[in-house]
Amino acid sequence: MATKVKPLSGFPEYLPSGRMVEQRVLDILRETFELHGFAGIQTRSVEPLEELSRKGEITKEVYVVRRLHAETGGKDDLGLHFDLTVPFARYVLENAAALQFPFRRYQIQPAWRGERPQQGRYREFWQADIDIVGQGSLASHHDTEVLLVMLEAAGRLHDEIGLPRVIARVNNRKLMQGFYTGLGITDPSAVIAAVDKLDKIGEDAVRALLAADAGQADSIMALGRIKSPDDGFVADVRRLGASNEMLEQGLDELAALVKAVGARFPGQVVADLSVARGLDYYTGNVFELSLEGVPGLGTVSAGGRYDSLASDGRNTYPGVGISFGVSRVLAPVLMKGALQASRPVPSVVLVAVDDEGTRGVADEVAAALRARGVACEVAPDAPAYGKQIKFAERRGIPYVWFGGLSGQVKDIRSGSQADADATAWTPPAEDAKPSLVLGVLNW
């Protein structure tokens, strides 16, 4: 009896045309990161569960990995990583003796979270991260650097595939913690965790989560409402009355970040003092990037400064990083068919086969074309030429080659056909690789 295949929600899978789009996006990100001197690494998919469970509210979304008959709750339980920062911190500790600091790395891999699947949120998803990590200390200008690199990468995606412009909302954990401490709050971290839910549940619901009196809650909400495209937020914060050294340090760090990023990308950065970031390892500037005009998709890139995520007891490795949610951005578009490749295969030429006795001739032509980087495939069988041309059309292949090394090449779109030498012929640049075809982006 035939078995009906049921789709598994939250795990995006694309047709070949969609995968080509995804690969192009990954190439753009990789190329941009490498232009800035970031070296690529790859880490394992699993980490000890006890390590993953120490990183804030994300614990409830961690997928546990164990042998089928292993004891539940064993000390050796593993979990699939929910981001790339936690495994990167472990990687730094294990390889510190072989790394040169500041260490600049990029990492493009899948991650997993046990969330309820919906647009922009998936159980398995691709992320692209960059981080800069120091040994003992790390200059604050690197906070600005990683944000600028991601904005540059997003700018290329805007120019090349039509991704909407990205807007960066930034805040500072020291600013928040210092402000809450200045109000007399004894557990600033709990307030930060509550404020992180402002966009999702609103002010009234956040107030209910706060262990604060009415005056403190009013000040917390007032801080979260402050937004500024420049350093004007500093005066707004000081008018609220809280004061301490940590607050001043956070104000200085955030003002420097906004000024530097605004100079390079005017109109694309906003100091938004409601941005908190839920993970508890952030200690300084934090970033959240969203697509302009696409509020329903939420944050597509995020990160920040972490000064104590990685430590071996003798050395501390402070860092700053930012992640781009590749699947978060691409999956809704690809599944709606709004962005696709011009053809579903990389082949630009189908080499026709006269008959099975001369298949070796076709293979020789294909080898000559591939030797010069021309992607091609040989017809799978040898029916009449008309059927082979139809096969090429169905696969989206624009050219068909007839004959041997000195043969003829036909553009099946225009019908034109000309003599050609397989050791010298090259397709027009616009046909050499599949291009991206942008439809109506209905977000």
- Poorly predicted regions are none
Shape: elongated
Strand content: 15-25%
CA distance, first residue to last residue: 41 Å
Number of strands: 19
Radius of gyration computed on alpha carbons: 27 Å
Structural class: alpha+beta
Helix share, percent: 25-40%
Biggest sheet strand line-up: 1-5-6-12-11-10-7-9-8
Main sheet summary:
9 strands, mixed
Provide the residue-averaged pLDDT: 92
Oligomer: single chain
Number of helices: 14
Quick description:
The chain contains 14 helices and 19 strands. It is an alpha+beta fold and 443 residues long.
Description of the structure:
The chain is an alpha+beta fold and 443 residues long. 36% of the residues lie in helices and 23% in strands. It is built from 14 helices and 19 strands. The protein has helices at 16-35, 49-52, 85-95, 141-161, 173-182, 188-195, 198-209, 214-224, 233-238, 245-264, 326-335, 359-370, 385-395, 429-432; strands at 39-40, 46-48, 64-65, 78-80, 103-112, 124-133, 166-172, 227-228, 269-272, 285-291, 299-311, 316-325, 339-341, 349-351, 376-378, 399-403, 406-411, 417-421, 436-438. Helix 1 runs antiparallel to helix 11 and helix 5 packs antiparallel against helix 10 (245-264). The chain starts with 15 loop residues before the first helix and ends in a 5-residue tail after the last strand.
